[in-house]
Amino acid sequence: MGHEETVYEALDHAHGGEGHWAFGTGFDDPLAGVDTTVPDGVDPADLGEYCLMLGDDALVLAQRLTQWITAAPELEEEVAIANVALDLLGQARLLLARAGSVGVLGRSREKATESIPDEDALAYFRDADEFRSTALVAAPNGDFAQTIVRLLVASTVRLAVFARLRESRDPVLAAIAAKGVNELTYHRDHAARWLLRLGDGTDESHRRAQAGADAIWRLLDDLFVPTDVERRLTEAGVAVDPAGTRDEVRSVLVQVLERATLRVPGWPAEAPPRGRLGQHGPELAELLGVLQGLARQHPAATW
């Protein structure tokens, strides 16, 4: 009897046996055919750092959302959450690939093998202090209502940034933003519909939605405070100063909460952007232990 190929072998063989960790087997270079030349007057290190900020937010939030798989309140919502996470993972891949294309790899490349793509090395072989994600996306999920509030806030903030990044002087960032705007619009609207349903529902759903808003609002103290990198790149026409999105984001969030019959929590005093500077609580290290564990244990493996 001849050898019967398994489905996994078939997938691997179909792409020449060149498996990748982060995004499956045999995917093409995510920046293939895109002009990756760094714009004149822009420090490649700054551009890479900025891409890490945006990419890490997407990667970490995607991982948080996948924790709801098999635990969401409805089967249809489980699929929706998974799709949102996949959108964010796609954004993370493009942004981390862009960071790698300008040389931002550091210790992650030393820990990985040369055959691992740059975006995989950045996703799986950096330590927590090398991540540039915010506390908003790294915080534990809480209950479903708190997850919905977090998704509403995170997608509203990210959509405001991406809508402006479509005019970036960096052609890669502009292309990523143009693709991401439609995705993020869906993420924001999906979360808003759920929050309206929860806030204006039963006494218990209202209580949980309000508790979720109160918990998430405490994480907003550094969202609109730019780093030096963001300031320099904004002046160069490449990045978006988060301070410039503050009024738009607040207007959207206040409108949704008020329609959901929820009290808008007080806005916290602004604080330095700790997460953007690699300063994180233990929750991020714990999350990365799950995300990165298998790849670090078998760095040369393919699937």
TrEMBL record:
Pfam families documented for this protein: PaaA_PaaC
One GO cellular component term: cytosol
Gene3D superfamilies xrefs: 1.20.1260.10
Biological processes per GO annotation: phenylacetate catabolic process
Domain of life of the organism encoding this protein: Bacteria
TM spans (from-to): none
Protein name, as recorded: Ring-1,2-phenylacetyl-CoA epoxidase subunit PaaC
Source species: Blastococcus mobilis
